[in-house]
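Figure 6 in text form: structure in, sequence out.
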C-alpha cells in the first residue's frame, strides 16, 4: 500500500516536461475542453450523459435490467442481482448463451448476410465471413468438439493468432458451454503450459504459425514444447494459417479443416445458467502465478453490449476495428464478443501496424472504410514517431470516432491522435477498464466534453471514487486509490480454483469496495485522471505483466541468486523493464551474460516482457522480512526521493 502513495507522488514527475505542462494546463483552466461537434451530438444515442448517469446511479439495477433486455434469454431472470458478498450474481435464474447472442440470433435473423468478420494479414491475404457463414463454421466445430467429448464446464486452451478461427474456437466453446482460456500468442511455451495446467485444459487450439514483421512465428513448435510440460491436453487442433512445415502427433493432433470436415452445419446452443462461467482469462497480479479471471454467460454480455453500443455509438452496418489481440480482455470484449453482440462488422488484422510501411494501419482504415478505430496509446506514440506525413497522406473519411485503451494516454499522444487521425474533428473515447471488469468502466460517451488525458467519468451504472487506505474519499485534486463502490453485471466472478485470492485481492484491501489496483485523482469537474498501478504490475506497451513473473524468469537462470525488476518510463511503450540482478558466487557480470538472462526470461514468459536493461549489483533494498523494495529501486533509478525507508534493512 505504501508503495502506491509513492507512485502517486511521482506520477507527474515521471512525465516529460511538455506533457506535465499540458496536464497542468488542463487541470487549472477549462481552455482545453473539447466539446462534441453538432454532428456527433445529433447522432449520439445518449445525448444528455449527465441525466442518464444520474438516473443510473439512483437505480443501477433498473439500468442494467433495461440493458439486459437488448439480448435474448431462453428463460428470463427471477431476480436482477443477488448472491453472497463478494460472490455477487446477476440475472439470477435466467438461461442464456453468450454465443447465441453473438452469433445465432444474427445468423437466424436479419443480419444473416451481413459481414461479421473481415480479416487481413500482414501479407495482404483477406477473408470475409457473413454471420451465416461464420455460424455454419462454428456449428461444424461445435459438432466436432462434441464428438471429441468436449462438454459443458470443460476447459479449452486457445493459443492462436488474430484470425477468424480464433473467433470460431471461442464461439464454439461458448455454444457448448465449455470454458475457453485464450493465451496470448506472444507468451512462451512455459507460460502457455502454466496456464493449461492451472485450467486443466483438455483441448488446445493452435495454428501452424503466425505473421509478425514479415517473419513466420512458429506457434505449433512452441505449443509442442508446452505440451511436453502438461498432461491434460488430449486433442490439439491446428489451423493451417501460413503454410509452415509442422509435425502432427498421430492420435493427438489434427488439422482444423480435417477436424470439422463432414460435420453438420447445424448445432444448438447449450442453455447456460446466467452465472455459468463462459471463459477464464489469465492476467498478472502481484505473485508469479497469474490469476484465472472468470467471466460468465449472462452478465458479461450485458455489460459488453451496452458499453460497445453507447461508448462507440454503433449503429447499422458499421465497421469496427479494435487493434488489440484476442489474447487479452480488450480482444475478448471488443474484437470478438462486443461487435458480434452488436451485430456489426469486426476487423481482425494479423500483423504489426507498420509493415511494409508506417502507414499500413491508415491504409487498412481507408481500404475497409473503418468507422471506429479503437487502439492503444503505445501504438499512437509509435505511429507519431514515424512522422505526421504518414497519416496526413490519408483522409480516412469513413472514421467517425476514435478510442484508446490499456494505459493512461498522455495529453501529447491524445492531441496527435486527435489532429492527425481524427483530423481535428473526431472525439476520442479514452476507456479505462480491466480484465476483471470485463467492460469499460470510466469512459466518455460521444456527447461528453473531453479533456486530453482524462478518461472522464464513470459509465452510467458505475459508481467510482478515489479514496485513502481507509476508504475515505480524498479531496479534489489529491491522488488516492481508484475504487468501485457498486457492482456491475460483467464483473469478475472469482479466480479460477482460488476464491480466497479473489476475495483478498479485490475486496479486502479497502473495506466495502472493489479495489482496482490503480491510483487516480478527480478534478474540480469530477473528471478522473488515472495515474497507473499501485501494485507490482507493469504495463509494457499496454500489456499487463507481473514483476514477480519476470523475476522468476531471471532466477530460473543458474547464474542468478536474486533479482528485482522495476518498470522505467519509455516514450513509446509506456514502461519497459529494468532488472537488478545479484549473481551467485563464481559468476561474473558481462554483456554476454546479460543477453543470456534476457533470453532466459523470454523463454519463461515470451517476447511480451520487454527488457531494456540488466544491472548487476551486490545488494538489493529489502524489508526486514526479506521482501525486495521495488519502489526504492525505482526512486533510485529515476533520481527521486526514496520516501519512507523505515522498513528498509541497511
Ligand atoms: O492500470 C490500468 C490500465 O490497465 C489496467 C488493466 O489492465 P488489463 O487488465 O490488462 O486490461 C487492459 C485493457 C482493459 C488498469 O488497471 N488501463 C487500462 N485502460 C486504461 C488504463 N489506464 C489509464 N487509462 C486507460 N484508459
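Output sequence:
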Amino acid at each position: 500500500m505504501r508503495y502506491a502513495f509513492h507512485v502517486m507522488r511521482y506520477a507527474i514527475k515521471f512525465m516529460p516536461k511538455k506533457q506535465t505542462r499540458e496536464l497542468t494546463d488542463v487541470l487549472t483552466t477549462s481552455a482545453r475542453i473539447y466539446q462534441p461537434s453538432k454532428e456527433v451530438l445529433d447522432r449520439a444515442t445518449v445525448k444528455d450523459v449527465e441525466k442518464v448517469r444520474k438516473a443510473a446511479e439512483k437505480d443501477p439495477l433498473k439500468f442494467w435490467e433495461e440493458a439486459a433486455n437488448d439480448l435474448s434469454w431462453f428463460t428470463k431472470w427471477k431476480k436482477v442481482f443477488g448472491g453472497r458478498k463478494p460472490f455477487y450474481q446477476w440475472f439470477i435464474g435466467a438461461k442464456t448463451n453468450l454465443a447465441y447472442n453473438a452469433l445465432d440470433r444474427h445468423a437466424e435473423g436479419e443480419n444473416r448476410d451481413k459481414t461479421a468478420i473481415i480479416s487481413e494479414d500482414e501479407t495482404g491475404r483477406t477473408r470475409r465471413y457473413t454471420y451465416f457463414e461464420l455460424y455454419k463454421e462454428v456449428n461444424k466445430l461445435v459438432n466436432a468438439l462434441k464428438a471429441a467429448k468436449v462438454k459443458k464446464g470443460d476447459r479449452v486452451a486457445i493459443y492462436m493468432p488474430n484470425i477468424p478461427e480464433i473467433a470460431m474456437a471461442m464461439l464454439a466453446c461458448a455454444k457448448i458451454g465449455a470454458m475457453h482460456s485464450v493465451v496470448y500468442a506472444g507468451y512462451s511455451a512455459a507460460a502457455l503450459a502454466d496456464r493449461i495446467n492451472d485450467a486443466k485444459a483438455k483441448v488446445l487450439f493452435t495454428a501452424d504459425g503466425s505473421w509478425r514483421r514479415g517473419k513466420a512465428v512458429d506457434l505449433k513448435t512452441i505449443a509442442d514444447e508446452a505440451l511436453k510440460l502438461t498432461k491434460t491436453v488430449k486433442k490439439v487442433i491446428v489451423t493451417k494459417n501460413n503454410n509452415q512445415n509442422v509435425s502432427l502427433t498421430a492420435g493427438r493432433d489434427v488439422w482444423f479443416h480435417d477436424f470439422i470436415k463432414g460435420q453438420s452445419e447445424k448445432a444448438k446452443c447449450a442453455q447456460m445458467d446466467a452465472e455459468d462461467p463462459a471463459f477464464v482469462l489469465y492476467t498478472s497480479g502481484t505473485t508469479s502465478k497469474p490469476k484465472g479471471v472468470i467471466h460468465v454467460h449472462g452478465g458479461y454480455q450485458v455489460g459488453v453490449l451496452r458499453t460497445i453500443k453507447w461508448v462507440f455509438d454503433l449503429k447499422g452496418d458499421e465497421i469496427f476495428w479494435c487493434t488489440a489481440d484476442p489474447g487479452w480482455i480488450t480482444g475478448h470484449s471488443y474484437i470478438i464478443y462486443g461487435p458480434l453482440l452488436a451485430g456489426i462488422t469486426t476487423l481482425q488484422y494479423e500483423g504489426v501496424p507498420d509493415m511494409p510501411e508506417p502507414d499500413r494501419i491508415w491504409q487498412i482504415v481507408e481500404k475497409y472504410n473503418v468507422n471506429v478505430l479503437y487502439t492503444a496509446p503505445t501504438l499512437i506514440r509509435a505511429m507519431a514517431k514515424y512522422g505526421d506525413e504518414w497519416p496526413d497522406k490519408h483522409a480516412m473519411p469513413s472514421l467517425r470516432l476514435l478510442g484508446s485503451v490499456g494505459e493512461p494516454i498522455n495529453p501529447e499522444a491524445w492531441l496527435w491522435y486527435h489532429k492527425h487521425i481524427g483530423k481535428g474533428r473526431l472525439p476520442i473515447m479514452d476507456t479505462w477498464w480491466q480484465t476483471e471488469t470485463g467492460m469499460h468502466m470510466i469512459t466518455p460517451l460521444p456527447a461528453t466534453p473531453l479533456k486530453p488525458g482524462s478518461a472522464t467519468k464513470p459509465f452510467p451504472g458505475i459508481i467510482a471514487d478515489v479514496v485513502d487506505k481507509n476508504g475515505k474519499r480524498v479531496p479534489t485534486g489529491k491522488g488516492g486509490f481508484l475504487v468501485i463502490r457498486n457492482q456491475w453485471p460483467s464483473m469478475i466472478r472469482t479466480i479460477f480454483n482460488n476464491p480466497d485470492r479473489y476475495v483478498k485481492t479485490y475486496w479486502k484491501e479497502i473495506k466495502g469496495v472493489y479495489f482496482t489496483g490503480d491510483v487516480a485523482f478527480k478534478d474540480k469537474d469530477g473528471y478522473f485522471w488515472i495515474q497507473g498501478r499501485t501494485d507490482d504490475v507493469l504495463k509494457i506497451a499496454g500489456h499487463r505483466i507481473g514483476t514477480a513473473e519476470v523475476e522468476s524468469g531471471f532466477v530460473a537462470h543458474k547464474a542468478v541468486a536474486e533479482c528485482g525488476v522495476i518498470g522505467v518510463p519509455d516514450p513509446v511503450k509506456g514502461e519497459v523493464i529494468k532488472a537488478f540482478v545479484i549473481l551467485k558466487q563464481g559468476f561474473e557480470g558481462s554483456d554476454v551474460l546479460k543477453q543470456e538472462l534476457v533470453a532466459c526470461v523470454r523463454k519463461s514468459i515470451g517476447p511480451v516482457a520487454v527488457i531494456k536493461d540488466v544491472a548487476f549489483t551486490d545488494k538489493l533494498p529489502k524489508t526486514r522480512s526479506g521482501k525486495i523494495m521495488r519502489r526504492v529501486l525505482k526512486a533510485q533509478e529515476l533520481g527521486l526521493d526514496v520516501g519512507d525507508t523505515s522498513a528498509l534493512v541497511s
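Caption detail: The first strand starts at residue 79 and ends at 84.
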